Amino acid sequence: MNKTFDRYAGIVFLALGALCISESLKISKGAYGSGVGPNTLPMALGIVLILLSIRLIYETFRYAKSEKAPANLDYKRFAIIFAAALLYAFFIEDLGYVITTFLFLFVGFQTMERGRVWSSLIIAAVFSFGVYYLYVDVLEGTLPGFPSWLS
Questions:
Q1: What whole-number distance in Å separates Cα of residue 12 and Cα of residue 124?
Q2: How far apart are CA 101 and CA 92, in angstroms?
């Protein structure tokens, strides 16, 4: 843990969460017959991001002072996950939520812990299908569905 990096990351994520909430207020609040609108998920994610970043900033004040050598930063993993996030945002409308989320999570899990392919596949599939089912079928919200060439 790097105190300075964590503190600045917390500030950046706090600003990003505020931006998510601000931009979600510009989206229409709901469709006919649905209590959950397209603005609900970005607003909820913005609130969660703000709460977690406040926690991270708070934790940086509680770090014990130590004179350890700085840890090596893992730029390769960061670059892979960052590129996967960019591709996720770029392809979510074309490929749909389930496929892009599944691929993003699988790449992320394999990047963080190589091996354990089956557990990564199962967790990514359960999460992407589960969130899609919960948000679209139970809460009657809207997410990009499956691509037209697949159905």
A1: 27
A2: 8
105: phi > 0 → left, psi -120 to 50 → alpha, else beta; which? alpha
Q: Which of 123, 133, 139, 46 is nearest to 97 (CA)?
A: 133
- Of 55, 71, 67, 58, the C-alpha closest to 2 is 71
Q: For residue range 127-145, list pLDDT tens digits in order.
A: 999 999 998 888 888 888 8
| Single pTM value for the model | 0.61
Q: What is the DSSP letter of 77?
A: H
Q: Read off the pLDDT of each residue in 104-108 and give the average, rounded to a whole number.
A: 95
User: CA nearest 101: which of 144, 50, 44?
Assistant: 144
Inter-CA distances, 107 with 11, 17, 58, 95, 118, Å: 27, 24, 31, 16, 13
Tokens read off for 73: 């930063």
109 touches 124 (CB < 8 A): yes
